[in-house]
Amino acid sequence: MRVAGISAGVLLCASALVVGPSGHASTADAHAEQRAITLITGDTVRLGGGVHTIERGPGREGVTFLIDEAGGRLRVVPSDAAPLLREGRLDTRLFDVSALLESGYDREPELPLIIVQDADARARTTMSGSRVVRDLPSIDGTAVRAQAKQRTGFWKDLTLAGGVRKVWLDGRLKPSLETSVPQVGVLDSGVDAGHPDLAGRIAGERNFTDAPEGGDDHGHGTHVPATIVSGGGASAGRHRGVAPGAQVLAAKVCADFCQESAIIAGMHWSAEQGAKVVNMSLTGDDHPGLDPLEQAVEQLTAQYGTLFVVAAGNNGKGTVGSPATADAALAVGAVARDETLAAFSSTGPRTGDHGLKPDITAPGVDIVAARSRLAPVGEGSYISMSGTSMATPHVAGAAAILAGQHPGWTPSSRPR
Questions:
Q1: Collapsing DSSP states into helix, strand and coil, what is residue 407?
Q2: Tens of pLDDT along 185-229?
Q3: Is residue 188 annotated as a catalytic residue, yes or no?
Q4: How much is the pTM?
Q5: Does the annotation mark 22 as catalytic?
Q6: Which of 182, 232, 283, 306 is least enclosed, having the fewest CB within 10 Å?
Q7: 347 and 333 in contact (C-beta within 8 Å)?
């Protein structure tokens, strides 16, 4: 038997459950690192020394658990969540204990979620133990944060709320670096607008992260737009961008990580501001079905005629990352100077239906562009980076030139 892609391994019924190779924690395990994650249901999974303990949330004495342990990965599904998983109304990542710990959610008091509801239900629904972060109208969603200590009450309200179509983990993506006069929207880690190469080329900025400043202390968010619009001010014109006559709308959606709800909000803002092309040099794991980012790409492309140019990812011969996997996205792989495919560039195909992605390639190896003055690495005005992150702005810049020459073209237009 399988439950929403999770195999039903062990059915557990006691109020506090200890599971391990020998069924109990030994004295040798006592000093191992202990970590704990509270699920969306309010149940807590504690791990350490090769064993895990599950503690039910208040008032959940009758709940049992389906446990899947395979390949060193742990998934825990409470029995009252299993039907919603089968119906496709819950994101399976919400019960992937290993992934939740890897993302550091055990160190935060709030669990970030995206709740997709019918419009009338969204307007009247309130859930205890949570706060609304932002509305996401492009996907009929709301980004909320559920408090750890009140998550049982939140889960109860959530399951009783009407019109809930899907509950997603508000996951985290990352910039697509190799571990190594149209307006163009750039969704990234902010921008050093004072860099000589970007002087006069930033048409607007907006910060969608929890970081207090909108500038770029990472470096990625300055390098990428400079590849598109740089005038080469710090190099006597040598390091010019692909479309130096264009203007950038800089949406900061990444700080320590790139939150999905921030990305969606940045996409919507860029499209509303009139950006014909939006550069997204970021990527996350793709899963079968339409995730919130893919849904936003499709909806905003149809609504605003915006072309989303997205990094394919750096998985080598592995699958392309989301949201480059969206049908409407222009997914970009990377090539070296001799036009051979970069070893790190994802080759596809897409997960699930094995659709062909990426759609195009561009230079992405040892690309020299503006260095943010706040960047923690490098020195001087320029820095060399590699990745599909660097290939993507080359395509976005070329698309911006086409958009300026052919204002009537849409993302689905084909040259004649």
A1: coil
A2: 999 999 999 999 999 999 999 999 988 776 898 899 999 999 999
A3: yes
A4: 0.85
A5: no
A6: 232
A7: yes
